[in-house]
Amino acid sequence: MTRRPPKGRTASPRGRTASPKARTSPPKTRTVPPKVGGQALSDGVLMRAGDVWAVARIDGSLELGRLPENRWAAVPLLRVLTGLGPALFRGLRAMGGTGRNRQLPRRVRWALPLFVAGPLLVNAVLSRSLGASTVWGWQSGLTAVALVGAQLAALRVVMPSSMWRFHGAEHKAVSAYERGSDLDDLDAVLAAPRIHDRCGTNVVAVLVAACLLPVPTRGAWSLLTFVLIFALSVEVVSAAARRPRSPWSRVVLVGGHVLQRFVTTAEPTREEQAVGVKALQACLAMLAADRLAGQELDRLEAA
Description:
- The chain has 303 residues and is an alpha+beta fold.
- It has helices at 20-24, 78-96, 106-109, 111-130, 138-158, 161-179, 186-190, 200-210, 221-242, 247-264, 270-302, and strands at residues 10-11, 17-18, 36-40, 44-49, 52-57, 62-66, 97-98, 102-103.
- Strands 3-4-5-6 form a 4-stranded antiparallel sheet, with helices on one face. A two-stranded antiparallel sheet has the order 1-2.
């Protein structure tokens, strides 16, 4: 003999009872704000959020697009190595054309690649000439540190001053968004911090410190060592950015914060800040459109 459920309630598959309201209500989902980041250009800002990107320029132009899906996004180290190529390609392509696709000066286009390759080449040459048993270490590491310092000073001079201000505009827009500020309120955005924990400058500082570590590799393996140390540096900075108030995070981020304050960023004007906000809002609008489209498809499939 089966027991009938009480009036107004229905039996669940396991014999428990549930109200019709609880049974038919859709599950509650928590919306996680997308992680946003970007890159400064000489005449604008490139923003990325999820798999979408937007480039806003001071001349009012706006470009939109998507990055390819990274299948290794959940795997530490591999996500850095597999995501670096598309991100660099998009960033360098955005830097290569300004306004109506006018090319940047040649010295500017070659500045960033030389900045990355310079210390690696110097370390390799010194290791061969000195007969050192390590590619990194104090023998050539101190030279690499000095070279990176000289390169940062040279970049500050060679790159247009507007790039450092747009870098500040990018950081302020992201910081304001993460704080929940109204992005349409330029005064509130301008009041946001210019120093950001996820900035690539922090990775440079950690990578420079890693030059002092003794890693027993030689020859062609030095390139693989450099790539792995770079990926590890990105993961360390990302972990520190998730817990910025912990003591170890402050140690990891302090070098990058100093470089951001005095070298790689500057206070933007209102017009430059508006460009950074425009790029970020364009990314967020694309993600919102994707969510609405997904909800509409779900509704049609359920009909």
